[in-house]
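Assess the record.
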Amino acid sequence: MSAATTRQDFNSSRFFSGIARGIAGALLFALPMFMTMEMWELGFYMDRSRLFLLLIVNIPLLVILSDRIGFERTWTWRQAMRDASIAYGLGILGCALILIAMGVLKHDQSLHEITGMIAIQAVPASIGAMLGRSQLGGQLDDGDDPEENDSDDPVHERETSYAGELFLMAVGALFLSLNVAPTEEMVLLSYKMTPWHGLIMIAASLAVMHGFVYALSFKGSHDLAEGTPGWHAFVRFTLPGYVIAGLISAYCLWTFHRTDDIGSTQILMAVVVLSFPAAIGAAAARLIL
């Protein structure tokens, strides 16, 4: 793709429209976490190495998402990194403004506390900013030709590799996990549940997840061929998706100190509990993304 073509394809009006949608997406998708006390407190005491790791992990995630659903169609990784940086910036700005407006951030707080609260909230907010492009984008811009808009829209359905499908499932799992992983209820439920409850929760997660996968058939990518048995989708998508949801859940719980000072049984139960919403997010990734 030539540089001239790339410059010609850049539409400033559509780009800034995407910015506005990104701000709206950051507020819409991250607002529950802005108003969660556990997220504020984590900004005070969260281990900075874990927070730094979360911030680093978020960067390639945003870059890959940008290549798929960025503010405007990207042709190079440099452009994808640009959009990812913008999404991160929107997330940080949105966090700061909302937390100040709600009286959570105050001028007499230490820099350590302020940066901690903004940094931890910026991760879901930046993902929300990127998702805002796909979820809040209109079908057509005013005055655009329908066929031209359809071909230029980065959210338009496209073929995705199997690895790409697994990545989208990981993003969906992470996005829903971030909403509930910081809460105390994850640990509380792990103490209330018996092994039988855990098995029922795993079975329910797999059943709901397979229902999503089989019903949606990942439209736009790896559609199941007519006559394909249900177990094929279960083995190819549901089981790997649940494993991914479990790994994402374990990482989120460890990041937010929910696995500290509790037994291995409670850790496993907490992962099972969190894997339920994570599995739904992974299975519904096509709807979310």
In short: Residues 1-8, 138-157 have pLDDT under 50 and may be disordered.
